[in-house]
Design a protein that fits this description.
The structure is a single chain. The chain is α/β, with parallel strands linked by helices and 236 residues long. It is built from eight helices and ten strands. The strands form two sheets. An eight-stranded mixed sheet has the order 3-2-1-4-5-8-9-10. Strand 1, helix 1 and strand 2 form a beta-alpha-beta unit. Helix 4 runs parallel beside helix 5.
Length: 236
């Protein structure tokens, strides 16, 4: 008797993990887009042909930074940036993370949010990881933005390399975390828009703390070897 005869439904074939959606028509907002990390990400995405809006607390500051970047980048205050974007990257300083997200809860409702904030402290021994009460910056974002689709990615990128126009490719993998595969697929596809970069699914948001914390180790690597280290995941 065949499976059809017995009434059971054959399982569909497993989805290819590298089959990613086309994200070229999505608008990406970068909150904290006037800082080094946010500015660098905005530049790379715009250079790859993505529509980018950078946000700042002051619209004038964002507009000035956007004009310097060129490539069709626009500037707006944080609320306007969030409203006008399909995907919103959170690249604000850790100290202002919670306050910024709380103030934009309505504007970020329904949006795909990508948190790339690394909670770090610094003392005479160097950088060290902080652990937020929620577990990680990404989990804090998820708690503060219950109506948003929160993911985490872009933690381990060198702002120096991102902003250097002479660098043609950013040779690194981007670890992407989230609860819904469709959302993490979009973020992986966004990372892949940048030459040399690849997005790799790395688990649910509960695993974000160690990904965020690894930046402290990369800072130590960079200081010792005078480098701009990134990450590569092998055998994937």
């Amino acid at each position: 008797m065949t499976s059809t005869d017995s009434g059971s439904t054959p399982k569909p074939p497993a989805k290819d993990p590298w089959e990613l959606p086309d994200v070229s028509d999505l608008t990406v907002g970068v909150l904290g887009g006037t800082g080094d990390q946010g500015r660098g990400l905005a530049y790379r995405l715009a250079r790859a042909g993505q529509k980018v809006i950078i946000g700042s607390r002051a619209a004038e500051r964002a507009e000035s930074a956007a004009a310097e970047l060129g490539l069709g980048v626009e500037g707006a205050d944080n609320a306007g940036c969030a409203r006008r974007s399909d995907i919103v990257v959170i690249a604000v300083p850790w100290e202002g993370h919670a306050k910024t997200l709380e103030s934009l809860r309505n504007e970020l409702a329904g949006k795909l949010v990508v948190d790339c904030v690394n909670p770090l402290g610094f003392d005479k021994k160097g950088a060290y990881a902080l652990k937020p009460e929620e577990g990680s910056a990404a989990e804090q974002a998820a708690a503060l933005l219950p109506a948003s689709r929160v993911t985490a990615a872009f933690h381990h990128l060198s702002a120096v390399l991102l902003q250097d126009p002479a660098v043609e490719q950013i040779d690194t993998d981007v670890m992407v975390l989230g609860e819904v595969r469709a959302d993490t697929d979009i973020v992986q596809a966004l990372a892949a828009r940048i030459p040399g970069m690849r997005g790799v699914f790395a688990g649910r948001l509960r695993n974000a703390h160690q990904v965020e914390s690894l930046v402290a180790n990369l800072i130590s690597v960079n200081r010792r070897y005078k480098a701009h280290a990134g990450l590569r995941v092998t055998d994937v």
